[in-house]
Structures are given as C-alpha cells and as structure tokens.
Design a protein that fits this description.
The protein is an alpha+beta fold. Helices cover about 50% and strands about 15% of the residues. The chain is rod-shaped and about 90 Å long.
Length: about 220
C-alpha cells in the first residue's frame, strides 16, 4: 500500500516537470507579432518586445525608454496591445528599410554591369567613350567664318569620328548605344530613316551613325 502511495506522489509532483510550464508573458506576446521578412528585423522585433514588457536589457534605454514609459502608463489590460501595435509598426519600417537597401545595392550592381557592357559594345563598334563633354559647333578648316553643326555629346557617351570628304575634315558623332550594351533601336532607326533620308550613302549601318553635315 505504501509503495502505491509513493508512486502516486511521484506522478503528482512530475506534472510540473519540463514541458509542462506555462509560457511567460513575453513569449506569448511575441507569438502574436507580425512575422518579419528579414532576419535582423525579426531579432529587433523580439528584443524590443521583451524590453517594452520587462525593461531588459537596459542597453535599449536610450532608444526605447520613452516608449516603455508610455506602456507602463497604460492600464494592465491594454499594455500588450500597445506593445504589439508599436512593435508591428517597427517591424514594417525595418522591413521597408532592408528592402530599400537591397534594391539600391542591386541597382548599383546592375548599373556597374550595364556600364561595362556599354563600354565594351562601344569599343567593339570602333567607337570611344568620351572623357569629357564635347561636340556641337566645329570651326571649318577651310573658312574660319563657318562652323559645322556636329553632334553634341556628354562625358561617358559612345562617340566615333568620321572623316567627311565634302568638308575636308573630321567630325565626331554619337553612336546610338543603349545603356545595356546594345543598339538603341529608336535612335538607330531615326538616324537611318530621318537624318539620312535620301542620302543612304551617308548612313553607317555598322555603327548606326548618319554622317550629316550642316553649317552655321
């Protein structure tokens, strides 16, 4: 009989052994918070939620003490709701900041890749990448009173120089290269069909340049 009582006592006592404890307030609250899209935002969520409820760790006082004070001023029954709203907003802001940083990094990487492709394509066409702004009016070598209306270009743009027999000198033209390192088809077609209309011999199909000559 005594052995049965002892066994029963062990069973009763062990109902409070590991795995049977009730989750604490912070654990319960965190389980109801919005999921973070990024790991560091999730870590911030859990850390701030714990701090607003418990005041620990005190290293967060400088950032969140005012908010914890507001929490403590709320009735006990609505404190968790206040914390939940604040932390959910914090997570949303953190996720947005992370996403913006990732997108900015990706855009910078794409811009670098596009620049390499642009420059490589330009060189394959026999052009050069302008080291400075230039072009526009070019003084005639035959009559210094005249200026030829050549293409204007910006630093970094693909340009090529052709010798123009009609005027006895060279002029520099923009090569219609798109930012991804291919022909800019709109500019290419414009040079061929509009600028060189009626003068097919002045169009260079390999570079998309129309060697037009005008003067002022």
């Amino acid at each position: 009989m005594k052995s049965r009582i002892g066994a029963l006592a062990v069973i009763v006592l062990c109902t409070s052994c590991g795995g049977m404890s009730t989750p604490d307030r912070v654990t319960t609250l965190v389980a109801t918070l919005n999921k973070a899209a990024y790991a560091d935002c999730g870590q911030q969520r859990d850390l701030v939620a714990r701090y607003l409820v418990t005041g620990a760790p005190t290293s967060l006082d400088s950032e969140y003490l005012n908010e914890r004070t507001l929490v403590l001023q709320q009735p006990q029954g609505v404190q968790d709701a206040h914390v939940r709203q604040y932390v959910n907003d914090l997570v949303a802001q953190c996720d947005q900041t992370e996403l913006a940083a990732i997108q900015a990094q990706q855009a910078a990487q794409q811009a670098d890749a596009d620049l390499v492709a642009y420059q490589a394509f330009c060189l394959r066409l026999g052009g050069t990448v302008a080291s400075a702004d230039g072009g526009g009016l070019v003084q005639s070598v035959r009559n210094r009173k005249f200026f030829w209306a050549a293409d204007g270009y910006k630093k970094g743009q693909c340009v090529i120089t052709y010798y123009v027999t009609e005027i006895g000198q060279s002029l520099t033209y923009n090569v219609p290269v798109a930012s991804d390192g291919s022909f800019d088809r709109t500019a290419y077609s414009y040079n061929r069909d509009v600028r060189c209309k009626g003068h097919a011999e002045d169009f260079h199909s390999d570079t998309g340049v129309c060697v037009v000559v005008g003067f002022l």
